Amino acid sequence: MTDAAGYLAGLALLVGAGFALVGAIGVLRFPDALTRMHAASKAGALGSGFCLAAVALHGGAFDVATRAIAAIVFFLVTAPISAHLVARATLKAGYPAILGHDAMATNREDFPANEPSPGEDKAGG
């Protein structure tokens, strides 16, 4: 392994650890389940991707790099899908979203779209 590959692997590892740290802080600091899920899935996928890129650079062997690249592709494909499923399950379970309204509730029977708030009457006022 050359010095340049070692330095790039170290840099990729630091960047990956930084993304993982930012994702962990986001999970602790964000106010609702949807934003926490977003922080965990996006920063976690990028953090693990950079760490696996460091493994591919540092490993030096073709089989190690191939497995690391395959794992990066797997993370980048499955993280958005799992985040979407967790968000749907969170909304179906009834957790409130701070977003102001439920965008999925407009045309669905299982999400009541136009329920009044606790302080409102049925006429909307």
UniProtKB/TrEMBL annotation:
Pfam families (alphabetical): PhaG_MnhG_YufB (PF03334)
Superkingdom of origin: Bacteria
Keywords: Membrane, Transmembrane, Transmembrane helix
Alphabetized GO MF terms: sodium:proton antiporter activity
Transmembrane segments: 6-31, 43-62, 68-87
Coiled coil: none
InterPro entries: PhaG_MnhG_YufB
Name the record gives this protein: Multicomponent Na+:H+ antiporter subunit G
